[in-house]
Design goal:
The chain has 22 helices and 39 strands. With 934 residues, it is α+β, with helices and mostly antiparallel strands. The strands form six sheets. Strands 29, 30, 31, 32, 33, 34, 35, 36 and 37 form a nine-stranded mixed β-sheet that branches.
């Protein structure tokens, strides 16, 4: 393969070659002129918008309603809490969702903000689908808040004024990374000193500082609200932690209550006071502020170590160049310093009466104005928007190995926010959302365009830390609206060349890769192909899809084990409690859909049906919940696995994509040919399509998959086009189509589309019959480990056992090869069956029953039509049994055809020495005498 042309050389050519879209947007509030993504000219098919396809009653409607109710009822101010906190704004008392969307979640909350993006997308899809204004109102609340957040981040931090102990006070919101910077002269090298503060802690993190004066981790003096034991601690040292001379309190400071802290040093005696009471004294102190010299860092709320910033409220902070008496300390408990016997601090006195701005006046007379600062300074670009500082993005640029406690996929989180903003714009025409999204891309380009190529390749190759999700797809989508050349250039800066080149060459290098880190890369590559015409992008995406489906796919359509891929073709060998991460199925559906727009290979829609009707539906619990969306993270396929719909600590990536999936079930039911000459019916689902360009409606009435077929009724204008009906790959016989009661000529072929061309008129009725049959799919690496399907439905055994169950299915197999007659239907429960006392049910049912998705196939005897021949079912070395070889010839048109197959198979196996002559005759006789379901 020829060496790839350097990206930056390609960018200029691509930008000139690509026509600039004729779209503009208003930078302020109000409505944008265009809120529809233009379809690329490279797409031979076009999707319909969600609003054009209404979902009717059925399994999808029931699942969707649960999510719609969740979205309608959830307080979005909880999601906005982490963003507002990061900007130092009031959070209004809102409590963050927690889990991954909060400061106390996994890896220090380093992914916070991602779930808010998912939620915006969910609300946008809900509004687009239903038109319910309640969702639009929530979207606008969120966009307004995020606009305020970005505006605050663009400026120096400003005081958040709240009610204080005596008057007003300054709140430091947890997650704001803000502190008060004091002038260097505040301690004045005083040998005798008193420091006094009123504080109201709002969080119980250890080692947060009330104050910290120092140069580094060697020379400092601090007062911590809590030490490792949870009590206040004062310390001073010139020789690091080992040389600290300390005073420790005796009880924890209460949260959300005012506490007064004071420290005095006079001679060799240091005293710590809490609420006017001396709680600790050290009479052997040799250090005082004069021992420290001139200090660089003089902070309220920030530590010279890597400790959390103080979260809480400050009222007064005073420093005196003398040791106050106990009586003076007592006087401070009920008075402002100015009105107490102590008087104002002589070295510094801050009352925090300011209600605006970011500085605090010194009332001591020394004029030592203090200033509010961020530990991280501030954004590098005005477009920055996040729920945490820019530090993760900065760290990633020099990072060589993963550590999600330091850097957890910051560009992945940026993608979720960006996608949510773009979806919000498309759903509501709120130009503020587009301005925020465009600004984010401007900021990312300002960072990434400055980095060397080698740095970018290293970054994107780092597990977890370098994950960027589907950001390329979203950036290209945004580019089609903004027309900014920098946006397309930005999208190409995410190229991971070693992955792209390998997949373009059809070289499978997926073993050991994190699955969901890489799947969404390929939707982005397709969009880059659309924008640039560079064929390696599309080729890589097509080849990649074929490396996953079916070679790393479980029966339900999922992929990955413990989030990673293993060797190609290993299925049974990867089954665990952590198989099939839900995000993977979500992203594979997107990839399949996008590939189908370019090439109408039915395999993409066959996969879409498999994953949608099984894993995606089954990942959503059939239960209402106001707090959680109730979506799985992993779906374990081990025997007896019980699905966990409240995974990890909550607000995970999979719960986010689960919210999205449940509000766009209808997005791929129908597609239209780019020239309007054909309508593709990809899925059989109760829906009503409004094809406005044609003036036509198509109402699909069905209870599929409980019903084996569908009825399509046309309304509106008369118009000619080709109706292309998907013939599922499993529908090997009996697929029939009638129009207005008359059979349509032609032979439907499984795994294709069946075309009906005519001028359609209002009232036309198309009936599609799709007979189901029960069949098994074998694990690629273990033919004896199998999973059961009935049509598109994966049937799973419900059993609490934790070992693989053993089942035989040939006992009453039909001449068609249908295995269903070996099972017994459960009355009143559609698609439920029993076999040997065990109930089988659709995987799609979101219950907490222990399930067996895979089982061991056991056919010990040769049985036909429930008649046992008494002959042991022999097997070849590769595991193929005698019965397997017979039934591989199904369907059989007649009993005689089956008996003929039995006879020829007997002859072959007898000749091979695998079956005795006498036993062979018994088998043939049994087959001849048995009765079969036709």
């Amino acid at each position: 393969m020829a060496p790839a042309i350097p990206r930056r050389r390609l960018l200029q050519a691509a930008l000139f070659a690509t026509a600039t879209p004729a779209f503009s947007y208003a930078a302020g509030g109000g409505s944008a002129a265009a809120a529809t993504l233009p379809a690329p000219s490279s797409w031979t098919l076009r999707p319909f918008e969600l609003k054009d396809v209404k979902i009717g009653q059925g399994v999808f409607a029931a699942k969707r309603q649960l999510m719609l109710d969740h979205g309608r009822g959830y307080d979005v101010n909880r999601l906005l809490q982490v963003f507002r906190a990061n900007a130092g704004l009031s959070t209004g008392g809102a409590v963050a969702p927690g889990g991954w969307e909060g400061l106390d979640g996994e890896a220090n909350g380093n992914l916070r903000g991602h779930y808010t993006g998912h939620f915006l997308t969910m609300l946008s899809q809900a509004y687009a689908s239903t038109g319910d204004q309640a969702y639009a109102d929530k979207i606008r609340t969120m966009i307004g808040a995020l606009t305020d957040v970005r505006a605050a981040l663009r400026k120096d931090p400003a005081v958040l004024s709240v009610t204080g102990k005596f008057g007003t006070a300054a709140e430091n919101v947890r997650g704001s990374y803000q502190y008060v910077n004091l002038p260097a002269a505040v301690l004045d090298s005083s040998a005798t000193i008193t420091l006094s503060a009123w504080v109201k802690p709002t969080h119980d993190a250890n080692w947060t500082r009330v104050f910290d004066f120092g140069n580094n981790n060697t020379r400092y003096m601090y007062l911590a609200a809590r030490n490792a034991s949870g009590v206040p601690r004062f310390a001073i040292t010139t020789n690091g932690p080992g040389g600290e001379q300390a005073l420790n309190g005796t009880a924890a400071l209460p949260l959300n209550q005012w506490s007064h802290l004071a420290v005095t040093i006079s001679g060799s005696t240091g005293t710590l006071y809490v609420n006017g009471t001396s709680v600790a004294q050290n009479t052997s102190m040799t250090l005082n502020p004069s021992s420290l010299g001139t200090l660089t860092n003089n902070w309220l709320g920030r530590s010279n170590f890597d400790d959390p910033v103080f979260a809480g409220v400050y009222d007064e902070f005073n420093v005196w160049s003398r040791a106050l008496t106990a009586a003076e300390i007592t006087s401070l408990q009920s008075n402002r310093a100015a009105a107490s016997s102590a008087g104002r601090g002589t070295l510094a006195s801050y009352t925090f009466d300011e209600t605006t701005g970011g500085t605090f006046a010194d009332a001591s007379g020394r004029g030592l104005t203090a200033a509010l600062r961020r530990t991280w300074g501030g954004p590098s670009h005005a477009g920055f928007l996040a729920a945490y500082p820019e530090t993760q993005f900065i760290d990633l640029e020099s990072r060589t190995s993963p550590d999600y406690t330091k850097v957890w996929a910051p560009y992945y989180t940026a993608h979720k926010i960006l996608k949510g903003l773009l979806d919000a714009y498309l759903a509501t025409d709120d130009a503020r959302a587009l301005d925020l999204a465009s600004g984010m891309c401007d900021w990312m380009y300002s960072r990434l365009s400055k980095l060397p190529e080698a740095t970018l390749q290293r970054m994107w190759g780092i597990f977890s830390s370098g994950e960027f999700g589907g950001i390329v797809e979203t950036i290209v989508d945004l580019y089609t609206i903004t027309g900014k050349a920098d946006h397309l250039a930005l999208a190409r800066l995410f190229d991971l060349d070693k992955l792209i080149d390998a997949c373009a060459a059809n070289t499978d290098t997926l073993d050991g890769l994190h699955a969901n880190q890489h799947i969404p890369i390929f939707t982005g590559l397709i969009r880059l192909y659309d924008a640039t015409g560079e064929t390696r992008y599309l080729t890589a995406a097509k080849n990649f899809w074929g490396m996953v489906v079916p070679h790393r796919m479980y029966g339900i359509g999922g992929t990955s084990t413990a989030e990673f891929w293993k060797a190609r073709g290993v299925i049974a060998g990867t089954i665990s409690d952590t198989t099939a991460e839900s995000c993977c199925a979500y992203n594979l559906l997107k990839l399949s859909r996008m590939l189908f727009f370019h090439e109408q290979d039915p395999k993409y829609m066959d996969y879409y049906e498999r994953a949608l009707y099984n894993q995606v539906l089954g990942s959503k619990q059939d239960k209402a919940d106001a707090e959680k969306p109730l979506v799985t993270y992993f779906i374990g396929l081990t025997p007896g696995h019980v699905r966990d719909y409240t995974p990890k600590q909550g607000t995970t990536c999979c719960e986010g994509t689960g919210m999205e999936s449940a509000t766009k079930y209808q997005d791929s039911v129908y597609f239209k040919k780019a020239d309007g000459s054909a309508l593709y019916v990809n899925l059989y689902s109760p829906t009503t399509l409004t094809w406005s360009e044609k003036g036509v409606t198509v109402t699909q009435t069905t209870d599929y998959p409980r019903e084996q077929g569908s009825t399509l009724t046309f309304g509106g204008s008369s118009t000619a086009f080709e109706l292309r009906l998907r013939v599922p790959s499993w529908a090997t016989s009996g697929f029939r189509v009638t129009v207005n009661g008359s059979a349509v000529s032609g032979t439907p072929v499984a795994g294709s589309y069946f075309a009906v061309s005519r001028t359609w008129r209002s009232g036309d009725v198309v009936k599609v019959a799709i007979p189901f049959r029960a069949r098994v799919e074998k694990a690629l690496d273990d033919s004896g480990l199998q999973t059961l399907f009935y049509g598109p439905v994966n049937l799973v055994a419900r059993n609490a056992g934790t070992s693989y169950l053993q089942f035989g299915l040939y006992r009453n197999a039909a001449l068609s090869g249908d295995l269903l007659p070996s099972l017994s239907p459960v009355s009143g429960k559609p698609l439920h069956y029993t076999l040997n006392g065990t109930e089988f049910a659709p995987f799609s049912e979101g219950t907490e029953d222990p399930t067996h998705a895979y089982f061991r196939r056991s056919e010990p005897k040769v049985v036909f039509g429930t008649t046992d021949s008494g002959v042991t079912n022999p097997a070849r070395a590769d595991g193929t049994t005698f019965l397997d070889e017979i039934w591989a010839g199904a369907p059989f048109g007649t009993k005689a055809a089956l008996v003929s197959r039995v006879q020829s198979t007997v002859n072959s196996w007898v000749s091979a020495g695998l079956l005795g002559q006498a036993d062979g005759q018994k088998v043939v006789t049994t087959a001849q005498n048995a009765s079969y379901v036709s």
